[in-house]
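Appendix C: a fully annotated inverse folding record. The material below is reproduced so that readers can follow the format used throughout the book. The structure is listed first as tokens, followed by the designed sequence.
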């Protein structure tokens, strides 16, 4: 059926685009050299292509080669377009620490000129030194504002490219699934009315064992790698000099979301207080000393918890 192929293609996409995509491959896809970008995107799409084959073998549906080639080729085109935009606009990798090179370079160059000028001028007065200080402050303030504008634009482009890219991938998967098995709207409307109006049918009862397995794997991808990327993409503007904590946080966040989902599924809501309370206690001193980290930590934890709650309710709705 349509849902079988859709779930299979969706799982392959999530696994290839998030789980099996390394940081090194992401950086290669953003390389200024077009040959490097082509190599990076091609390697990425090859992984997705192989993942599709493995998933279709697993569900024992036969490999729809034409459709798999279509989805892979469309993915290649989208990623090449995305990587080219990122390279041309010099959008930094979301795994790197966000700093304003323009601001740093401008301040350094201008300050160096002032220092040389002051050094060479043996007759420099206190008035001259005061003027130099004022010039340096103005340059620094102007450069900082430029850096903020540049950072904000990059943040907006990062979010837009991520959301647009994923939406187009999902649309291509829907089209490919429809080509394999025509989408029957009346069938799903009939099920919807039975599910909502009479309550005689549940989603879990209507799913085969294979669909449930695919859904479990999809939810696992969503709770770990996908959620990690969503959090750091939407909070990319807050990622300043946070050191290795951001990298480590992705693994902690994945475990945290899985625990949150399990707690919600078993109905032990009070355990959430212990989970997030203990995490906050551990991070308290670090958050107290670093306001930037505190801001990122609070928003990141909130968004991560929200994603975990949504996934937990989706699991309840479809599998229980």
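Designed amino acids, in order:
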């Amino acid at each position: 059926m349509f849902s079988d192929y859709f779930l299979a293609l969706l799982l392959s996409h999530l696994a290839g685009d998030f789980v099996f995509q390394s940081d090194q491959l992401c950086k290669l896809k953003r390389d200024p050299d077009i040959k490097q970008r082509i190599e990076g995107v091609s390697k990425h799409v090859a992984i997705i292509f192989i993942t599709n084959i493995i998933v279709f073998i697993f569900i024992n549906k036969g490999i729809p080669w034409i459709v798999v080639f279509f989805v892979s080729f469309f993915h290649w085109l989208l990623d090449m377009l995305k990587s080219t935009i990122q390279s041309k606009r010099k959008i930094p990798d979301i795994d790197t620490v966000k700093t304003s090179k323009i601001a740093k370079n401008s301040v350094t160059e201008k300050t160096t000129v002032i220092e040389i000028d002051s050094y060479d001028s043996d007759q420099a007065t206190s008035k001259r030194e005061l003027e130099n200080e004022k010039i340096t402050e103005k340059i620094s303030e102007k450069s900082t504002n430029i850096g903020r504008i540049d950072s904000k634009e990059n943040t907006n482009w990062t979010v837009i490219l991520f959301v647009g890219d994923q939406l187009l991938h999902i649309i291509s998967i829907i089209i490919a699934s429809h080509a394999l098995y025509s989408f029957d709207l009346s069938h799903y409307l009939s099920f919807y009315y039975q599910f909502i109006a009479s309550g005689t049918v549940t989603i879990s009862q209507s799913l085969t064992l294979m669909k449930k397995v695919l859904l479990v794997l999809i939810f696992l991808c969503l709770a770990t790698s996908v959620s990690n990327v969503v959090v750091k993409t939407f909070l990319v503007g807050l990622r300043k000099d946070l050191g290795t904590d951001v990298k480590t946080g992705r693994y902690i966040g994945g475990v945290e979301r899985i625990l949150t989902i399990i707690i919600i599924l078993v109905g032990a809501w009070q355990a959430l207080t212990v989970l997030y309370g203990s995490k906050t206690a551990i991070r308290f001193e670090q958050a107290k000393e670093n306001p930037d980290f505190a801001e990122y930590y609070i928003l990141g934890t909130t968004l991560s918890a929200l994603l975990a709650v949504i996934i937990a309710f989706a699991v309840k709705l479809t599998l229980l």
